[in-house]
Specification:
The complex is a heterodimer of chains A (294) and B (271).
Chain A lengths: L5 E12 L7 E13 L5 E5 L6 H8 L7 E6 L2 E2 L5 H10 E4 L14 H10 L6 H14 L4 H4 L9 H15 L3 E5 L7 H18 L2 E6 L2 H7 L2 E6 L2 E7 H6 L4 H8 L36
Parallel strand pairs in A: 3-8, 3-9, 6-7, 7-8
Antiparallel strand pairs in A: 1-2, 1-4, 4-5, 9-10
Helix pairs in contact in A: 3-6, 4-6, 6-7
Chain B lengths: L4 E14 L2 E14 L3 E5 L6 H8 L7 E10 L7 E2 L5 H7 L4 E4 L13 H12 L7 H11 L16 H13 L5 E5 L7 H18 L2 E5 L3 H7 L2 E6 L2 E7 H6 L4 H8 L10
Parallel strand pairs in B: 3-8, 3-9, 6-7, 7-8
Antiparallel strand pairs in B: 1-2, 1-4, 4-5, 9-10
Helix pairs in contact in B: 5-6
Classes of the chains: A alpha/beta (294), B alpha/beta (271).
């Protein structure tokens, strides 16, 4: 592939019309600048509370939402000005995993379709047999038994199985980047760990760089790598996970770390906090923001 | 905290009938809840915590059924009743006014086409029609208790964040000053700062109004921060009940110890 695999955000700002705010706008992302390199493969977590703008950044990076100001470039080119071929290449190299393992599937089609669509769209196999072999291999790579999931409808699979089908799709495509928006928040602890381990495997074995968006600090700690802390649409702290968590420099990072309930009844919180939850904040993590059906 | 008992559960057994026979979800469970305390119910998923709650609230759906036991509920100014036996009108009167429920994912239990104030009205006027005159003040005061502004009353659920909806539900739960509030996973799926605010509000409700709370959570951190006593469930049985300090410092049962050890902490990776 010709272009250099780097995603770069420069002073990205995203505003939405909103009732009840002083100027009629809500600034979801105030000023976000960072770069994601495919080499070396890495995990970069973006952590913040709901309404902090983290999901909006994911939508910006995926090209689903054009920012109000600032630029997002891939290999030096603005991703909203790519031609057809370039855009296809971008989409192939930057793959999403969304939060809700229920809403991404069209309930009327068997789950196979999600995988076959990828095979056809990106010409991954020349024959039906080769396609089947590829699908089976990818399902096995995410610890799914092809015989037990192929031919089934989405409602016949658990949330964890559906999320792993999305990982199998990524395994087939081998993108340079995975944009994972709260992929484990609806999974229970055991499945969550399995999912994260697969993601770390992809990084090691297939050289994928992941932008991992979450509100859960223990997940960030488990993944390691780099972390960026976002609040009110602004990235306030960034660095290696261990460093940020052990010696946080921004007050907001300290607040986040301090708010993890410690399993020690003698170490109860002695201070009170208030969280500024503006009533005008659009619910970011709910169905109102439709997840595209793949 | 008084030694007076609000709820006395004994010998509770709940089964789910399946085509492969009955599965016992709760077995030989004895538990008492003291007035004014915060009792934490801990345990992993599938241990029977939620089944216990819905059985006590009489919201258990088939194929689940209570096959044995009693749950004697002492309400203020009323004679003791067995929650597992009350029927019809008697049960309807108890709900909200003496016993209320904050369900798991309760941000989804508000009616999406009603303003917040109308949802309060629904509950309050049904059980205490004499409060009609003072309703507006009461709603404002209830919202304030959980740290919400009075203007929230005029809003629709979609205008609120998950944490705010959760707090609206908490305010509705205590509106009629019930004897007991059962909260099922009140902070699951909320992020840490919002979780902390919710836990703060729950502690306030007890501190300011003497509400008795039964808080179900799989998160031992939540119990350590909030509970007075903790009951640990495993495979449908109660394995240990004790003061929160004793549970964490000197667990008597192996499973309790494992549960505490399995908490992921920053500074070491979960295994």
């Amino acid at each position: 592939m010709s272009t250099e695999k780097v995603i770069e955000l420069r002073e990205v700002q995203q505003r939405f019309h909103a009732r009840g705010t002083p100027d009629g706008y809500l600034t979801a992302v105030a000023d976000a600048s960072f770069r994601l390199d495919a080499e070396p493969p890495q995990v970069v977590s973006l952590v913040g509370q709901s309404g902090s703008g983290k999901s909006t950044i994911a939508r910006n990076v995926l090209g689903l939402q054009k920012p109000t100001a600032g630029t997002i470039t891939y290999g030096g080119k603005d991703i909203f000005k790519l031609n057809r071929t370039e855009y296809d290449e971008y989409r192939r190299n930057v793959q999403p995993v969304f939060q809700d393992p229920y809403s991404i599937f069209n309930p009327f089609y068997r789950v196979d379709r999600v995988l076959w669509k990828a095979v056809k769209k990106f010409s991954l196999a020349s024959t039906r047999e080769a396609g089947e072999a590829l699908i089976e291999e990818s399902l096995q790579a995410v610890s799914l038994d092809p015989g037990r999931v192929l031919g089934r409808y989405p409602h016949q699979l658990s949330g964890g199985q559906r999320q792993r089908i999305m990982l199998a799709r990524i395994h087939m495509l081998r993108p340079a980047f995975v944009i994972a928006d709260e992929p484990v928040s609806m999974l229970d602890a055991q499945i969550r760990k399995l999912f994260l381990d697969i993601l770390l495997d992809f990084q090691r074995e297939h050289g994928m760089t992941t932008l991992f968006i979450t509100h859960d600090l223990s997940t960030v700690y488990y993944l390691g790598g780099q972390v960026m802390v976002i609040t009110k649409g602004e990235i306030v702290e960034r660095g290696p996970v261990a460093e940020v968590m052990h010696t946080p420099s921004h007050p907001y990072t300290r607040l986040l770390l301090d708010s993890i309930p410690q399993p020690d009844p003698d170490a109860r919180w002695t201070t009170r906090i208030t969280v500024n939850e503006s009533a005008a904040t659009p619910p970011t993590d709910t169905a109102t923001e439709a997840t595209p059906i793949i | 905290m008084s030694e007076e008992t609000v709820l006395e559960v004994s010998g509770l057994e709940v089964v789910y009938s399946t085509s492969k026979g009955d599965v016992k979800a709760v077995e030989e469970l004895d538990l008492s809840v003291r007035r004014g305390e915060i009792l934490g119910i801990a345990g992993e998923s599938g241990s029977g915590k939620s089944t216990l709650a819905v059985a006590l609230l009489r919201l258990l759906k088939p194929p689940g059924k209570v096959t044995a036991g009693s749950a004697i509920f002492h309400r203020k100014g009323g004679s003791p009743v067995d929650l597992l036996k009350v029927r019809g009108e008697e049960l309807r009167v108890l709900r909200w006014s003496a016993l209320s429920y904050l369900p798991q994912g309760s941000m989804n239990s508000l009616n999406p086409v009603m303003r917040v104030e109308d949802q309060f009205k629904d509950v309050i006027l049904e059980h205490a029609p004499e409060r009609k005159e003072t309703l507006a003040d009461l709603i404002a005061r209830l919202l304030d208790q959980v740290g919400l502004e009075p203007r929230v009353a005029r809003m629709y659920p979609h205008e609120l964040s998950g944490g705010m909806k959760q707090r609206v539900l908490m305010a509705i739960c205590v509106a009629l000053e019930p004897d007991l509030v059962i909260a099922d996973e009140p902070t699951t799926a909320l992020d840490v700062t919002i979780q902390r605010v919710i836990l703060q509000s729950l502690a306030d409700l007890r501190h300011d109004f003497g509400v008795t709370l039964m808080v179900i959570s799989h998160d031992m951190g939540v119990h350590a921060q909030l509970a007075d006593r903790v009951a640990v469930m495993y495979e449908g049985r109660l394995v240990e009940v004790g003061d929160v300090h004793q549970i964490f410092k000197d667990p008597q049962h192996d499973y309790t110890r494992q549960l505490i050890d399995s908490i992921p902490r920053l500074g070491r990776r979960a295994s």
